[in-house]
């Protein structure tokens, strides 16, 4: 482990000191480091960075595919990967409870840490869930900022600014990619906001409470099987309440997430003679959807379930 750290430190030092000395060495090193090395915390951040950085960035994602990011604990190898990065992108808003500890022990003073939620007006975790218990692992805010349209635009901009700073030679490239991304987000908002205004039913059910920011964008209301931190296997009482909620509000579709007990969603759907449908929360990679594709799918699918 130590050896690898020393090797990578040496590589950095060589790049700095040998520039212009040995052509062979320089070419080799610069072709390896041509791309900005980005470390992202979990898939949602990776998908977002891909929209802005496209082929000028090389991304290493920390939380492995299929792992629930709310309860993630980093390992020593994650530390090494973060040390190799130029930029470390976290969602922030309390999503990565592990990041602070990791950053204290990471040996890379040049690492630029991007809190993608910087500047976002956060929603209190208690706003959705009266029963959220005191939980020392999680923060006081709903961390799912990347799943809202307005909030994703702010995150994209924070990422764009970090890329411009790290790689000023490609400033226009990143700015244009951001404009395209912002345009796609605005298109979704402008297309669907009037549509949602026309439906009388604004209520839907998900696996865990992930769409607080999207609800704020579109004037919707979510209810969920598990809480905002994907915790709390529902009690029989909670299930009973959900059945009542679904019946009273004429909810026909229960959205399912791969990482959150789809069986319970299915039970609930059977109970009320409704159906389940997939939704992309981007906690992990499902079906290789790009960020924009997943957002479009989610908004369209929620709309179709309400109209
Ligand atoms: Zn979540």
From TrEMBL:
A Pfam family annotated for this UniProt entry: ZnuA
Database matches in InterPro entries: AdhesinB, Bact_metal-bind_prot9, Lipoprotein_PsaA-like, ZnuA-like
Gene3D superfamilies according to UniProt: Nitrogenase molybdenum iron protein domain (3.40.50.1980)
Keywords per UniProt: Signal, Transport
Keyword Repressor: no
Domain of life: Bacteria
Family, similarity comment: Belongs to the bacterial solute-binding protein 9 family.
Name of protein: Zinc transport system substrate-binding protein
Species name: Clostridium punense
């Amino acid at each position: 482990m130590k050896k690898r750290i020393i090797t990578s430190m040496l590589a950095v030092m060589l790049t700095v000191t040998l520039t212009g000395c040995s052509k062979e060495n320089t070419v080799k090193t610069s072709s390896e480091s041509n791309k900005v090395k980005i470390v992202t915390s979990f898939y949602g951040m990776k998908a977002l960075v891909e929209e802005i950085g496209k082929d000028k960035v090389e991304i290493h994602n920390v939380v492995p595919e299929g792992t629930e990011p709310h309860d993630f604990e980093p390992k020593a190898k994650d530390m090494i990967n973060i040390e190799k990065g130029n930029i470390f992108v976290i969602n922030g808003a309390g999503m990565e409870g592990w990041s602070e500890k990791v950053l204290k022990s990471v040996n890379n003073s040049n690492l630029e840490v991007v809190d993608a939620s910087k500047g976002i007006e956060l929603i209190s975790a208690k706003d959705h869930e009266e029963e959220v218990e005191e939980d020392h692992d999680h923060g006081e805010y709903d961390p799912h900022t990347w799943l809202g349209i307005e909030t994703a635009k702010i995150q994209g901009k924070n990422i764009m600014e970090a890329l411009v700073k790290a790689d000023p030679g490609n400033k226009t490239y990143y700015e244009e990619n951001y404009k395209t991304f912002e345009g796609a987000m605005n298109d979704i908002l402008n297309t669907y906001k009037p549509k949602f205004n026309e439906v009388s039913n604004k209520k839907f059910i998900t696996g865990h409470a992930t769409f607080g920011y999207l609800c704020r964008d579109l004037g919707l209301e979510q209810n969920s099987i598990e809480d905002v931190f994907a915790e709390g296997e529902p009690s029989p009482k909670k299930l009973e309440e959900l059945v009542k909620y679904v019946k009273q509000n004429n909810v026909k579709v229960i959205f399912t997430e791969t990482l959150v007990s789809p069986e319970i969603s299915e039970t609930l759907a059977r109970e009320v003679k409704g159906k389940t449908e997939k939704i992309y929360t981007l906690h992990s990679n499902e079906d290789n959807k790009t960020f924009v594709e997943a957002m479009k799918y989610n908004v369209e699918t929620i709309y179709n379930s309400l109209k």
